[in-house]
Design a protein that fits this description.
It is a single chain. The chain has two helices and five strands. The protein has about 90 residues and is α+β, with helices and mostly antiparallel strands. The chain has a five-stranded antiparallel β-sheet with strand order 1-2-3-4-5, covered by helices on one side. It starts with a strand and ends in a 9-residue tail after the last helix.
């Protein structure tokens, strides 16, 4: 699962071939022992994060939504990815 961004101890990854959610564009978030999955509308689909990190990742997704969509399509079509600037 490629790491596409990191900030404030939060790791953001994308894995297109995720069998459980592969049709819905999403990112995987890790922070210490916490894990979560978010769609590109900044909705948590599964998992849990502390409130502060939840607010940070939700803001980042909203700010970087266009880049996330471009990245998702590139991974889907060509299997390539790029890094997205941190918050």
């Amino acid at each position: 699962m490629p790491i596409i961004s990191q900030f404030y101890g939060i790791i953001v990854s994308v894995y297109f071939n995720d069998e459980t959610k592969h049709n819905l564009p999403h990112v995987h978030i890790r922070y210490n022992e916490y894990k979560a999955v978010y769609d590109f509308e900044a909705n948590m689909l599964s998992g849990n994060l502390p409130l502060k990190q939840r607010k940070l990742i939700e803001a980042w997704i909203i700010i970087r939504k266009e880049e996330l969509i471009t990245l998702w399509n590139l991974m889907k079509d060509e299997g390539r990815f790029f890094k997205i600037r941190p918050l």
